[in-house]
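In response to reviewer comment 3 from the previous cycle, which asked for concrete evidence that the modeling workflow produces usable outputs, we include below a single protein chain processed end to end. The sequence was submitted unchanged, and the resulting structure tokens are shown without manual editing.
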Amino acid sequence: MDTLIKKMQEWGTRQAVVLADANVAALYPHFFDALSDHFTCRTITIPGSESSKTIEQAVQVWQQLQAWQMERNDTLIMFGGGMVCDLGGFVAATYKRGIHGVYCPTTLLSMIDAAYGGKTAVNLHHVKNCIGVVRQPDHVMPANTTFLQTLPMAELKSGFGEMIKYALIASPLLLKQINDLEVLTPESVSPLWIQECVRIKENVVRKDPNDHHERHVLNFGHTIGHAIEGYYAASGRGVPHGVAVAAGLLYESLLSEKLTGLPHNEFLMIENLIQRHFKVKPFSKKKWNVLLPYLIQDKKNKDGRINFTLLKGIGSPVTDVLVQDYPF
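The workflow returned the following structure tokens.
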């Protein structure tokens, strides 16, 4: 907390507003009390679900910041998981053309992914991350794995799904370590695994901060994964991001075997790992047709074709594989 206080003083912050997932705020009501000795501090709580990641929720937060006369030197602190980081980062990037944004990630997903890279967004009509900007946070607080002790198992699995993605695209050693894991628990998540995921993402983002080409490697599993999220959100049954991505990783690994030469033995290893933790149902043309309305709205698409990042081998992603028709 001392590092954050020092940075906020350097920025000239007078007011600090904590944008908190309501569940996290209830569990850790005094986490930011130390800020009150230095700044005027207030809290905005929002429901802790993907349904909060909308332009309507952003408007409500903007209006509250305006009512409190927040200035450009002031700071918005995102206290929660990926949804809070995405929504709050978007609010901070756009309110008065940008106030200071700080992430305090409390989920495994946000510790390894959402708090890094600068992508901010809200959903539109259940299409994932349709409205947003790229803007790097001013500060990310270090991962505090104590938060994982109070994380629902579905959210822990969500972060683990994203961790599998990082291992598959860039870290055979991480893959070996997580593949040895039989049962996922908060205690089983090594801080070194978190650090490795952050290292991978920061290296990729450093080369391509605005997502023009190299950063596309991070999309593996996300084309189908985002479509699954959209479908379930539209039907009123939300699914955690990383759980949908885990299914996307399996389906896109199958697609990799067909289109980019992923060796069959590597596909079987990926299938075994994902099925051990997620129990993904087989893919079919019927499922493709159900997901197609969401696939064709994916922001990565080019020339009217669906854009995939696939694997030619573990640790060797292939970006911008364009698909027109049912590819399985």
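The radius of gyration is 20 Å. We consider this sufficient to address the reviewer's concern, and the full set will be provided in the supplementary archive.
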